Amino acid sequence: WADFRAQARLPGGPSSPRLAAVKARILPFLPLAAAFACGAPAHRSACPTTDRALPAANSNGPAAPGIDVAALERLAATRSYSLGTPRPVRITPDGNVLFLRTTRRSFNAELFEFDARTGSTSKLASADELLEGAGLELSAAEKALRERTRTALRGIVSVEVSDDGRTVLLPLGEKVFAVDRATKGHRQVDVGTGYPDAVSLSPDGKFLAFVRDQDLWVVGTDGKGLRRVTKHERDSVTYGMAEFVAQEELDRTRGHWWSPDGRTLLIERADEATVDTLHVSNPAAPERDGTAFRYPRAGRPNADVSLHLVPRSGGRSVPVAWDRAAFPYVRAVDWPEHAPPTVVVMNRAQTKATVLAVDPKSGETTTLVTEEDPAWVNVPEGPLWFADGSRFLWASERTGVWQLEVHAADGALLRSVALPGFDGGIQIDQDAGEVWLSGSEDPTSEHVARLASLDASPAWVTTDAGVHSVVVGRHGGTRVQIDAAPNGARTWTVVDRSGKALGTLESVAEAPPNLPNVTLETVTLDTRTHHTAIVRPRDFDPSRKYPVVLQVYAGPGVTTVWNTPRAYFKDQILADTGFIVVRSDGRGTPRRGRDWERVTSRDLITVPIADQVAALEALGARHPELDLDRVGVMGWSFGGYFSAMAALRRPDRFKAAIAGAPVTDWRFYDTAYTERYMGLPEENTAAYDATSAVVHAGELTRPLLLVHGFTDDNVYVVNTLALEDALFRAHKDYELITLGSTHMTVDPQMEAALLTREVHFFRKHLGVPASTAISAPAP
After folding, report:
1. Within 13 A of 509's CA, how many CA atoms are on the CB side?
2. Potential cystine with 693: which of 146, 322, 573, 644 (Cβ 3.0-4.6 Å)?
3. What is the bridge-based pairing of β-strands 318-319 and 304-311?
4. How, if at all, do strands 227-228 and 215-220 pair?
């Protein structure tokens, strides 16, 4: 499911809206990691992986059902039945679709091509064939980038395609391969010695650029003319790579961009001399060296980022001029074919964003659009230029609701169109002049809308309930419509410009034996409509009262309640062991308007806890089988933070909590995310203290299980260790599981092991369903 949701955003904590659109689909459903001891075969006998039930506290009636170990392992091995689904990466000018796909229980992705003329599919390349069975080693930078983009796949994960669609570039570890689509032949490009990071292909397909040893290099796709284009001045300087906060929080993974003619590159220079260096190591593998990361914590210095225009052959660079002191963040960069290079910059508080047009000869800039918001500015996709360079599209929230703006090349506003429920996705069919958008006025669904021309109004292309998205070809007229229906059906339909179906991208994913038993409901809280999801056991007995588990994220930019049962596989496995699992989306979540989202500004916990508790109580009044005297809470990342704070702040409602990879004090988290929502620590000290689990550790009165990976380079393990130390010093009981994993855990054995531990933890502290007569539900 996570992979399905991510594929609709091409190109691809918490994040700003663009990457948050991806993380919103990924983070709520990432299984927590496994207990570290349970990940080691030698210790597996000590792990609770059988289906026996622990003694239940305060239970009356029969014991709860045991854990379905086979179902648990199947869910983990198939990554919630997402492995084997197609992931479109590019629609070529001739209308064909390039897509990645694994087998049903493999993370190894291969590249396929769908022929729009014949409707047939053929394999274009695989890592095993290209590497002739040799292993694939990744650099530290590549591993970090995959962590930033939540890329769990292996094999072919990066695909570069020339503008004419003929040449496909496939970076595979230290080797780079060029594939000719016409002949299906391939050749290895000689890139010299050492790992080539951040590989990109020139628009004409004749050159590639990459980063090695902190500098940008260029070589022909024929392997000739290898040249170092930049020369870093000191060890703290890197050319051509996006810095940490750009990758993790600003939705920008590139650090260099080709001119349309391939003669010039616009290159990022990042100087991290003043950025804190944090070291990550795995104590379970002390023979391995630790890894140093430049990580800017809230209130601490960021990287000094600048942009430079450099000839492909090297030589004198031209700096891009803007007020970098006032606008230190580079949010987005684009170099359209018939328009100037365009850069979106933001101030550190992220209350102001400016779109700049760059003179490619002098480096001087002109302001095209400015956005301001006293809380924070959401910057979606864009600006998106039309092929002739006469106009561009920009989505704005300045009126309080999203609207799509059409601007002239000089920035003048020509027209705006209201976009209720817009979620940040904009695509242009350049040949037809059509604009495609994504969003929904129902936040549990997602739909596709189309503007037939810039004078038209958006018309919904999809109207059925569910989650729908589209990948649109800039040329060629082909698009891929991706649908996930409330009945669990998934389709990837290739259609032409007229809407005629040309065929489907076949999924080889394993089919689940059954779908989750989920019910979506709305509750009204102080005149506000909140969306919730309830997952009951398959053997649900309406005469019994069940302990409740709140599965939560509750952070900015993330929706967890979706109108498709495939979002709830893990919830169902938990429910089937004797719980009712609940989710709800309160204020602070996206696509509900500016005021709904910005209410959490400068305090990320008070309103989310109030809304989650109120929604639980409203559901409990409606459904007496929900035993609100026995409620647990669990989450990962921001959800882990919420869970820890819920145990501390509302012990009257939450009787046990599992906090996975939690931020425990916002001073430990990165600048771009934290300061967007909390402001600078020195300017909002009281709020930083009030929202800190570490500060309030002495108030713990409920069972708390902390889970964290030692090699997490997003939410560093110092978060959990600081909370553990504070709990220990306050003489508080808690449980701790440390893992040899990063923030993203992909090992199926680990996933299965921890869900087992979660079940036993909640059963120990919440008990089992009670054979108690239930009165009629409240009206």
Report:
1. 28
2. 644
3. antiparallel
4. antiparallel
Give the containing element (helix H, strand E) for 77.
helix 69-77
Give the pLDDT mean for 742-750.
79
> Token pair of 721, please?
């260790």
| Distance of alpha carbon 531 from the chain centroid | 21
Q: Give the three-state DSSP class for 22.
A: helix
Reported confidence tier of residue 730, pLDDT bands at 50, 70, 90:
very high
Contact (CB, 8 A) for 642 and 608:
yes
**What's the pLDDT score for residue 134?**
79
pLDDT band at 381 (very low <50, low <70, confident <90, very high): confident
- Averaged over 378-393, what is the pLDDT? 92
Chain segment 178-201, per-residue pLDDT in tens: 999 989 899 999 999 999 999 999
- Contact yes or no for 406/414 (Cβ under 8 A): yes
Phi, psi of 771 (to 5 degrees): -85, 75
- Asked if 82 and 29 count as a contact pair (C-beta separation under 8 A), the reply is no
Structural tokens at position 531: 């969306």
284 in Cβ contact with 277 (< 8 Å)? no
* Banded model confidence at residue 283, pLDDT cuts 50, 70, 90: confident
Rounded to whole angstroms, what are the CA distances from 134 to 170, 173, 212? 16, 11, 22
Question: What would the two tokens of residue 246 be?
Answer: 């750009």
Question: Of 568, 554, 557, which is closest to residue 520 (Cα–Cα)?
Answer: 568
The reply to whether the predicted model has a pTM over 0.70 is: yes
**pLDDT value of residue 366:** 98
Q: What is the largest CA-CA distance in the chain?
A: 82
Residue 161 region by backbone torsions, left for phi larger than 0, else alpha for psi between -120 and 50, else beta? beta
The pLDDT, as a whole number, for residue 774 is 55
**Residue 169 CA: distances (Å) to CA of 111, 202, 203, 333, 571:** 11, 10, 12, 21, 40
For residue 266, which of 226, 213, 306, 223 has the smallest C-alpha distance?
306
- What pLDDT was estimated at residue 516? 96
Rounded Cα distance between 477 and 570, Å, is: 39
CA 136 from chain center: how many Å?
25
DSSP secondary structure letter of residue 31: P
The reply to whether omega before 458 is within 30° of 0 (cis) is no
In sequence order, what E strands does 365-441 have?
365-372, 384-385, 391-396, 403-408, 413-418, 422-429, 434-439
pLDDT at residue 674, rounded to an integer: 98
Residues 6+ apart with CB under 8 A from 7: 85, 86, 87, 88, 469, 471, 482
Q: What angle do CA 266, 270, 271 make, to 5 degrees?
A: 145
Question: Given the structure tokens 């940490």, which residue do they identify?
Answer: 244
Q: CA 177: distance to chain centroid?
A: 28
CA distance 319 to 323: 12
Separation of alpha carbons 384 and 371, rounded Å: 16
Integer Cα distance of 770 and 548 in angstroms: 12
Write the burial class of residue 204 (CB in 10 Å: 0-12 exposed, 13-18 middle, 19+ buried): middle
The rounded distance, in Å, linking the Cα atoms of 485 and 465 is 7
Higher pLDDT, 18 or 474: 474
